[in-house]
């Protein structure tokens, strides 16, 4: 039995026991529309895949769809993870192009990977999941974590990035257009820290995860640091 067939069968079994009213999606629905509906109903993209992405997985992440778990080759089948409170949701899709991906099935099961377990407790400087970004940043700075300026002067910010930059949060690397999920970087004594947030308005931005991760190619901060 091919791996993607096995996964499909597994998800069907899980979905049978799941309450369909918990998710605002239907089989055959365009994935991009379903994703917006899920986020609107409180299902947050849940990052579990920390390995090197390939093929369609790379294209999805570039679009800000960071919750991608895996995609199969040949018959294009992808899995995405979401979380609301302490409940997990895995969504499967089929389709060749991102714009043509459609919902195939879903189930309420948390990934076996424990890569996110550390985020269930307090992180550096005592930050926590669902904590307002402003409060988390204040804690980090007090503990010696310095915001890493990600873009040189003249960089054209857009959307939520522009709002963060206007408030001198120059450590913002990128924000997705559809879910307002942002990535910010900090450093301390040679160590790096990546903080992910979600929220459309600045005052509503909250921490979703963090990792000891450095930017791929951080530009040199302009003279004057984070002024």
Please describe what this structure looks like:
With 227 residues, the protein is an alpha+beta fold. It folds into two domains: 3-107, no CATH class; 117-211, no CATH class. The chain has helices at residues 3-17, 31-40, 56-62, 133-142, 160-166; strands at residues 44-45, 68-71, 77-84, 87-94, 102-107, 146-147, 172-175, 181-188, 191-198, 206-211. The strands form two sheets. Strands 1, 2, 3, 4 and 5 form a five-stranded antiparallel beta sheet that branches. A hairpin with a 7-residue loop joins β9 (191-198) and β10. The radius of gyration is 18 Å and the shape is globular. The model is unreliable at 1-21, 113-120 and 217-227 (pLDDT under 50).
